[in-house]
Amino acid sequence: MEEKVPKLSNMTVNRASIENNKVQLKFTNGDETYADHIILASGFHIHLDKLPFLEDRLKRKIIREKGHSAFPKLNQNFESNLKGLYFAGPLSAHSHGPTFRFILGLGKASRTIVRSISKQEAN
Questions:
Q1: CA pair distance 109, 89, nearest whole angstrom
Q2: Lowest-pLDDT range, 51-55, 72-76, 101-105, 118-122?
């Protein structure tokens, strides 16, 4: 595929439009290209403050990783300083390592969290 599909990286799209049944991309550096299909791998930035389902007052109470305010500081059970509030997935990666950013780490994370919740309920 690498020889058949051109790869452009570190580019910023300024405008995308359809021209003669092709996608026309214009980049901020002035370059442009036409294509039948576009695969966009834009990346993402993990940040606790961007979680829309947590109230701001709750987010302010969560202790963050020193020097990395985007990540909650988690104990060995993936629990934040707020009892009963656990994080798995990308937000747990800073405390537990890069494997936990991905599905690969989800099994261990979920078993650890369930075990922790079960112990707390037993007490």
A1: 8
A2: 101-105
> Across the strands, what pairs with 19?
22
- Torsion, Cα 94 96 98 102, to 10 degrees, reads -110
Sequence-separated (6 or more) residues with CB below 8 Å from residue 42: none
Q: Which amino acid is at 83?
A: K
Q: Looking at beta carbons, which pairs linking 94-103 to residues 24 or more positions away fall under 8 Å?
A: 94/65, 94/68, 94/70, 95/65, 95/71
The single-letter code of the amino acid at 56 is: D
Q: Which residue has the tokens 């991905």?
A: 102
- pLDDT tens digit sequence for 27-39: 888 888 888 777 6
pTM of the model as a whole? 0.64
